[in-house]
Fold each of these.
Amino acid sequence: MAEARFDVLGVGNAIVDVLTHADDAFLDAHGLAKGSMTLIDEDTVGRLYDAMGPAIECSGGSAANTIAGLASLGGSGAFIGKVRDDEMGAFFRHDIRALGITFETLLADDSAPTARCLILVTPDAQRTMQTYLGACVELGPDDIDADLVAAAEVCYLEGYLWDRPLAKEAFLKAARIAHQAGRRVSLSLSDPFCVDRHRADFLNLVEDHVDVLFANEEEVLSLYQVETFDAALQWVRGHCEVAALTRGEKGSVIVSGDEVHVVDAEPVERIVDTTGAGDAYAAGFLHGLGGGRDLAACARIGGVGAAEVIAHMGARPETSLRDEVARRLS
Amino acid sequence: MAEARFDVLGVGNAIVDVLTHADDAFLDAHGLAKGSMTLIDEDTVGRLYDAMGPAIECSGGSAANTIAGLASLGGSGAFIGKVRDDEMGAFFRHDIRALGITFETLLADDSAPTARCLILVTPDAQRTMQTYLGACVELGPDDIDADLVAAAEVCYLEGYLWDRPLAKEAFLKAARIAHQAGRRVSLSLSDPFCVDRHRADFLNLVEDHVDVLFANEEEVLSLYQVETFDAALQWVRGHCEVAALTRGEKGSVIVSGDEVHVVDAEPVERIVDTTGAGDAYAAGFLHGLGGGRDLAACARIGGVGAAEVIAHMGARPETSLRDEVARRLS
């Protein structure tokens, strides 16, 4: 097998985040389920944007955030995702390439603008996401560059892709090529509602295609429709090589065959915005794994990534994660 | 005189900030003078953007930031500035209106896009600004709505307007109308290089038209071409009703006739990005002044505004300044 040119290739929705503060009354008034990700259409995004407070814009997208985190750790990454040739698309492209990440997906040529996600951050630092997929719906199997997939140690896929038929095909094509090339496939379950929408497919995926699974507690409970974390853990250990299960302030639990590691969360002075916590965790974990670290060390590096991004508004690191790891773990 | 509908009307450049971290070597390599604001053309903004790191976008503009800060304090504000009907313009408009600020300036109809300012934040938390004025160059005297000016207690003008001939006419028209209506005129000197470019005009303005002046130490030294802060202070006290002179971590000094107040800076745990410190200070000071507070109290409220915005990336408050004032000063 050829040496990998990239540590991780991410495939996901290419999204610009529009972040604002909101209170619980605002969520209630607009019927938004706190902590979830909901797909909305162009009219709804316009109405909600008009109603919400002043915002900041920054590049987002779950898998894209993970690749950005990986780059911040010093890893080499590539990304496949769809934007248009508009101002938001230019921001997204700039931000990911500025990190040294290979991003060559053809621009969308339809009329839909680059995707945006309205993120409402409540005083408890929880984030509620309303996503207009825009140009992302054009992502399909033709965008999966087989050479790129084969050139990455790990092919990292976000569960959100499963929400659109074309993107789902792209997802399966990428996973197939990765395995044919002897690479690992990693999946993030993304969101409990997303798991709910696609449970049967995700169960098959986890059993048959996924080597490294990322999920938070809610997502893995939803996947196996069980009541307790321990029950979910028993299921998942038989299904994939490694499962990294995150539990917010309780840290994470890693299972791999007979191994189980319980790792504390990294301390954070003040949690400002939990957007991207899981994405940054996956970045750290995968970076550790690629560097041959043991699973507990991978989980700690993941925890450092999560701790950095939840201390400020926005889903991507503001400071070098490599420096953060050196500061916290050495 | 009719009761004012607004506490403050701001007139300034309507700009979207594009913020990134950079090191001193980057500034050197691109010949950028740390701490300054430089006007650049469209080609240069493109080249610099391509070279710089990942960024976040948020609404900016000096006077606009001040009006945003005022709104965050519970004050009523209006703003005059020029954007285009593009995505950046929509962000700017949304962010200012979402704060309850009246903003009705006609959209620019030329081909230039909404202005953007590339802001490079160095590890010492200093910001270096490269501004492409875009649609702002269309701001002119026709945009100055006489009723709006007459309806505001204070007409607040940014020195940056002086860089473009049309905007300068708009500036003078607004100041004239304000005084005819018995209102106060306030000026922020904006930037030492800006003062350098327009020293003679600014000296005339300060002597003849400005009631409340905001300047930092460097700017006021540049204005009077003196070596010491005390010398500048002696000049300025004879020229305008109130001068609020900011000195970074040393706090601020307020002079008004025979009164002098020296007020400490508010403590900040970690200074992240000084962008907008002066704008937020002016917001607090003007809010205090409008509320009939004494000058020392005005300076302290200004200090709270500055302390909030320098603790995070971006020039506008992330949390309610009204709450911050209650927490810190009561």
Amino acid sequence: MALTGELFIGRERRETPRKFPAFDPASGRSLEPAFSAAGSAEVEAACALAHAAFDAYRELPPQRRALFLEAIAKHILAQGEPLLQRAHSETALPLPRLEGERARTANQLRLFAAELRSGEWLGLRVDPAMPQRQPAPRADLRQRKIALGPVAVFGASNFPLAFSVAGGDSAAALAAGCPIVVKGHPAHPGTSEWVAQAITAAAAETGMPEGVFSLLNGPGTELGATLTADPRIRAVAFTGSRAAGLALMGVAARRPEPIPVFAEMSSVNPVILMPGVLGSSAERLAREFAASLTQSVGQMCTNPGIILALHSPGLQTFLDAARTALANITPGVMLTAGIHRNYTQGVEHMLAHGAELIARGEAGDAENCGRAALFSVPAATFLEDRELSEETFGPASLVVRCATVAEIRRIIERLEGQLTLALHMDEADQPLAHGLLPALERKAGRIIVNGWPTGVEVCHAMVHGGPFPATSDGRSTSVGTLAIERFLRPVCYQDFPEALLPLELRAAELLRWPHRLDGERRLAKPG
Amino acid sequence: MALTGELFIGRERRETPRKFPAFDPASGRSLEPAFSAAGSAEVEAACALAHAAFDAYRELPPQRRALFLEAIAKHILAQGEPLLQRAHSETALPLPRLEGERARTANQLRLFAAELRSGEWLGLRVDPAMPQRQPAPRADLRQRKIALGPVAVFGASNFPLAFSVAGGDSAAALAAGCPIVVKGHPAHPGTSEWVAQAITAAAAETGMPEGVFSLLNGPGTELGATLTADPRIRAVAFTGSRAAGLALMGVAARRPEPIPVFAEMSSVNPVILMPGVLGSSAERLAREFAASLTQSVGQMCTNPGIILALHSPGLQTFLDAARTALANITPGVMLTAGIHRNYTQGVEHMLAHGAELIARGEAGDAENCGRAALFSVPAATFLEDRELSEETFGPASLVVRCATVAEIRRIIERLEGQLTLALHMDEADQPLAHGLLPALERKAGRIIVNGWPTGVEVCHAMVHGGPFPATSDGRSTSVGTLAIERFLRPVCYQDFPEALLPLELRAAELLRWPHRLDGERRLAKPG
């Protein structure tokens, strides 16, 4: 398949006069072809199609949408090496990482297909009529969840497959029954075009209505704002910077009809090294930390950006071993020249704010290499300077040296919301860990024991979310099957004749799905 | 019990120098005693206590919080006639209505107690470790839902018991594990004090931590804004006007850390009279409509404010019968002089916008009587003038005369979000109803067949919510057990040692609760 640089407006491919280039960040050179930038006419056309497709798409039997998701996975995998090569050229992410990411993307689509078939997301509840009840009869009341409407999905720079055109947000929204209009990330438009081809092929193969998917590309922030403001868009899913997420939240809140924005924005993922384990295993922890910090050149939402530990010989051993480990890690090329520039400035910012430089990684010889940086400050300095707790996107981390457990506790209480908090501990640390747990729960969506935050399992129990500013809505997750709930709302049907009821709420069909009958949980009948 | 007019700051009763009166709307006279108005010092004190209580309260076994809710119900019922008398004096709502509302309030608390014991709200999910999995092992991942934090609950004027101090929002938030700071409605501060006494007694009796409940009173809008802005408040629950709801949404969005606002604001609850049933049963429908419209002097969130029907002899019969029925209904006194003034202006507004007056109720001889008003306009006029579709709080309704089914359809598509949409239909109307259903689902939280929107059952399948502006977040309900989900967020525990896990996620305890194991639904083991 040759890339054309065109947009996808439903089944139509469209070229526009305004073009923008893709770049290879390792060389700084632009890549062929030039890509069409979408304007308000393309937003209008894509949203009109998405709106027109909505009622038909959301009422398809769950099995039909499941087949669509599985077909997307199949078509992405069938694209083979050229997709990975293009993603590599546009992002400088290594091929093995991209291969893993592609597998995750396919598995994610299949997991949502399985979730669709489980019917859990339908949230069926039936409270049958009680015509004889005193003092007043009860009506027949039945509840199911339906899709919100067309969703604007924003591709993320750092996961060109797993959180981009057919990534987690797209899979969850499509599963819920929401047509999607994707705003592709301008740093990997060729990869986006490949994946859009796969979705379009899958939609045709499985007979989906036109408008269930569109892809709009463009540089700058105006396209995203225009899309978010469109009255036919009913929710936004976004992964990216705090500034960009806040801007979209503002646009959505100022609409005549405000809509929910699910933005995954900013997290420094503090890791607490407890005294017991630090005393016995500082070198191992330092090696693991260096690997986690520099994974994908630190360009992970769950990068360990802050380490909290007590002053101790163990901490000194940790810092020394981390210095050695980081010095031996070959730096990778960052996703874009802009991200590299911001990272470099972020490192300078830390120094300007009085953080002590403990270690640096190799400089690297390609363009835009992300050179690891490890800093340290005493807790008192950290507590005084809010900016030291802000995210530096890239392989930088800050060790906060605490004099007392009370200081660790005070820092946790002062933290903003986080995607993750991790505890390294041994048996002896357990009482201390127990005491910190309530505060950790208030601050994060996921709490990890003896592990590192990077690596997010796509499963049922995962939470990739957390209080603001980790996300705009801490009641949600953007990874795992619970992510589908972002795009659903409950509807109650009162005294409906059987023939008018949605299929899954009719007496016979209801038994095939998990439901609550007068509040009591019932399993789906097999078969 | 004598009323003191004091505030409730945790266990402390506090008087402030600034006082405001309660009024009897039927006479316009003020009622004893004068009530203390809360200022920023009281907001500070109540929020500090709520924050301090949060960790302990949310980690109580569900059974403990269930006993607390049941004790609140018991203490409210034990207050007997004086509570009802005070509520009657302050709201002019008839005693039988208040008696019914008290029963609903008690049942609501008990329903949430039962929901707590069911464990459904915990949302337990376990994906066990897979240490042998290739290419990488899977960690042990466990999810539960925890409370958001202290919630600001705003009492509503029109339900002094069921949507006020111990109403639906309070019951849902307390069940979820959230301490509440209630901003009492200034129109019924004496009723609020009675109920606050019941909650305080129940909290003491069942050993709840101090700070789980506070009651702040005050006139004006500043108190609510100050409370919503307090950083310790993590969510807001509100029922009231669109203007007040939008103002709170604005305050919440402008916080350094934005929080969710669940505001139930504005709905005209359109009722569609289908041609078949209108031809055969116009007189019955008119009588039922008149009763629904004037229930509680039309001061219901679910008041039928718009009727859609085709031009026909049946419609003329309906209008004539409604005129007769309304003329025979004795008007009630409205909740406050201000609500009466707004209602009177709303009726004039309809006339000024060209609506034809079809019928008026009796004028009544008490102060502040809400005189029913029925208007009619052709669909074309309605479609041209957005203001005709806005809510007039009180017993006013507008019949929109449609020339064609297409016109009905166009009006539905142009409607804002609604709490309810109702269809009156017979067998012959079914195909038409079927065609309208997708649009109805997009516009409302509850769809009713052959019933009237007033009367909201408190049960599992109820949805009292709907797209904006019916509510600020159409993914929620403020009535029924699903309302608890507004105040919960998921947390994931990764590789936790058994002893550190929350109780309900430990191996043995897990079996006692409904959960999903690797996605598969498991029922709670009895015993």
